[in-house]
Design goal:
62% helix, mainly alpha, 3 helices, 125 residues, two-stranded antiparallel ribbon, binds zinc ion, elongated
């Protein structure tokens, strides 16, 4: 088994692969089952990245809260606007990320509900 570069995106893939795992470029005879596995992998990666993003956003929110706490000297004085803006933006970003995550999980759930799933598809969902 050799490793080749995908002609579309340049990602290193197996020479036996019929579909590029990164961009979905077809290198051979692609069946509907191959496409399902590709979509499932993409979805799994997407959910992973959305989860990581939501953790990063929570961290920014906590940083904003610490800033607020320090700036207001333990909530006894009015803080500067910066802390509020940071908390507001991160809270909004969190909601957006959770929205995308919810939608991705709904798609994954509907894919899992399918009957006659191939073992390769099951592994990737
Ligand atoms: Zn590719």
């Amino acid at each position: 088994m050799a490793v080749i570069a995908c002609p579309e995106c340049g990602t290193r893939i197996s020479s036996r692969a019929v579909i590029c795992a990164s961009c979905g470029f077809q290198l051979g005879e692609v069946t509907e089952a191959d496409f399902e596995v590709f979509r499932a992998r993409k979805l799994r990666d997407q959910i992973y990245h959305l989860n990581m993003t939501s953790y990063a956003v929570i961290t920014v929110f906590v940083a904003g809260f610490c800033w607020y706490w320090l700036d207001s000297r333990g909530f006894s004085e009015a803080p500067s606007a910066g802390a509020f803006i940071l908390m507001g933006i991160s809270a909004l970003a969190y909601l957006v990320v959770r929205g995308f995550l919810f939608r991705s999980r709904q798609i994954q759930k509907s894919m899992r509900a399918k009957r006659n799933m191939s073992s390769e598809l099951r592994r990737n969902l």
